[in-house]
Amino acid sequence: MPSRPRLLSAIALALLCSAPVAAFQPHIPLDVRASGSATSFEVFESRGVGPTHFWCVAADHARRVLGAASNQRIYVARPLGASQIEPGRKAVGFTLSAAEVEAEKPKPSPLTLLTYTTIRSAGASMNLTQALQYCTDHMSVP
Question: Is residue 40 a part of any domain in this protein?
């Protein structure tokens, strides 16, 4: 068993190492609005953003606002297209519930499942931790 000073040093080091990571926030200018149920929301399109931006913002929203666990799956409920809650804007509908994925949309092919960043197929999904990895490309210090 480690001595008390050693244990305290290890705890202090762990806290110091984790603090800067917690201070970083993704800086992506995309709006997010709740839609339909407590577990669904839309991420609105903005000029110059791609699929990784959408997944990052969806994961960040799921974690911060909805309190989702790190292994929670996030699904594309409605691919990039006309917003259902704000006319005239394009959005991707995300959900934390597989049951909320639009049934009339074709399920993604196995090839699409390998392309994790797709926002053009209902049913595409990844877990929150995977999606948050896309945020590392879009970080800024507050």
Answer: yes
